[in-house]
Design brief:
With 204 residues, this protein is an alpha+beta fold. The chain is built from six helices and six strands, in the order αααββββαβαβα. A hairpin with a 4-residue loop joins β3 (93-100) and β4 (105-112).
């Protein structure tokens, strides 16, 4: 029963998210196979699980729709929890995944580095910090052409629906609690990553 339910759930996911005819056919075949068992308990159990799955997905989709309706907004004195190993610098652009403390949701953030000294400082960050920031909140952008990778959909799969463009920041320590405990694990990963970068190529 569990295996059949898992197949139905996965097929429903592809059907709802991708709207593909193949997923629809798989769902239809699975339901016909389910009815062919003539096992009332099995049929009832799978249908209850599918209804629960559908309701949960509908609720999630409504929340996603509300979040994506956000218009560009300049915010001040917001707090972003940024794990030390969730940052990446390419040229003068710092990108990161952050927990927006006030809104209780993940965001995809970026910051344009102004000086080489600032870049050097950011490269050496090895501790999870809370960033006190000012910036602009934007919905994630859809791809501009057919062949372009759909980053918006990629981040939606990670429950990230907004971008935060930071214009100014200051750093502070993370207060004790669950986030601080998780932060120490991320800091350990970052320390190992920085140590490995010091190795000669190609070991780095």
């Amino acid at each position: 029963m569990l295996l059949l339910t898992a197949f139905v759930a996965v097929s429903l996911s592809f059907l709802i998210l991708d709207h593909t005819w193949m997923a629809g056919m798989v769902v239809l075949v699975l339901f016909l196979r389910l009815l062919a068992t003539k096992n009332i308990h099995l049929i009832s159990s799978v249908l209850v699980i599918c209804v629960f799955f559908s309701i949960r997905f509908y609720t999630w989709q409504q929340n996603v729709h509300q979040v994506m309706q956000v218009t560009p907004d300049v915010t001040q004195k917001q707090h972003l929890l940024i794990y030390s190993d969730e940052t990446k610098i390419s040229g003068d652009l710092l990108t990161f995944k952050a927990w927006w403390w006030e809104k209780r949701q993940w965001v995809n953030g970026y910051y344009r580095i102004r000086t080489l000294a600032e870049k050097k400082t950011l490269l050496q960050i090895n501790k999870t910090k809370i960033w006190n920031v000012t910036g602009k909140v934007l919905p994630l952008q859809a791809p501009t052409n057919e062949a372009q990778f759909d980053w918006r959909r990629f981040y939606q799969g990670k429950n990230i629906f907004l971008a935060f463009a930071v214009t100014h920041y200051t750093l502070q320590k993370v207060p004790p609690g669950q986030m601080a405990w998780r932060g120490r694990l991320h800091d350990l990963r970052q320390a190992l990553r920085l140590k490995l970068k010091r190795l000669p190529r190609p070991l780095d």
